[in-house]
Amino acid sequence: MNSSIVQLLAFEKLNGDNYAAWKSNLNTILVVDDLRFVLTEECPQTPSSNASQTSRKAYDRWIKANEKACVYILASMSDVLAKKHESLATAKEIMDSLKGMFGQPKWSLRHETIKYIYIKRMKEGTSIKEHVLDMMMHFNIFEVNGGAIDEANQVSFILESLPKSFILFQTNASLNKIEFNPTTLLNELQHFQNLTKGKRKEVEANVATTKRKFKRGSSSKSKAGPSKPNRKIEKKGKGKTPK
């Protein structure tokens, strides 16, 4: 990535409210670097073993251009937005996602975003980091489109969206009136998830060991079982006095 491209990318980083200017700047970069075709052309089929040299070159050109375009796009947006989109495979997928977020009237985006925030729930067993970053991104979208959610309410929305495995964390935060901002909350939630994962594995290992011991113990008891009634009968016999 040459210095002029770096300067252009840094000049207009996407933060939500500058979508139109950002898109214009990015399109200029993609055109200058001969990469914009990946947004309008489908990826060629993976060439077979007997494919022609022309087919292979077309495929390789598209793959390399797409990878480069993805790097440019992700580098030209805020960290939260980049984290959200880094898992997408193509530049077109990233641009389509951003268009859905910012390419609509502000009132419509505010409505859709606050609805998403209210109903968003984390699924048990998924990454707390990805969940919180996703919510933080939507807080940002709501704000850049004219809405306002202060940090205290952002924290409340995040805590309310957590699954049952975080009940202890929620209770502790409530009882001790711990104050978080979204970033410190994310750090603490990650620590809590890692801690509970470790304990869960330890408990599962202990349960498995106990089950094995129980099975061995129950089999030995069943062998000794039939002799118990005989011992009781002998005791009763010894207790009688001869006449």
Automatic annotation (TrEMBL):
It comes from the Eukaryota. Residues 200-243 are annotated as: Disordered. It holds the Pfam family Retrotran_gag_2. Residues 219-228 have a biased composition (Low complexity). Residues 229-243 have a biased composition (Basic residues). PANTHER family: CCHC-TYPE DOMAIN-CONTAINING PROTEIN, OS04G0629600 PROTEIN. This is Gag/pol protein. It comes from Cucumis melo var. makuwa (Oriental melon). The lineage of its organism: Eukaryota, Viridiplantae, Streptophyta, Embryophyta, Tracheophyta.
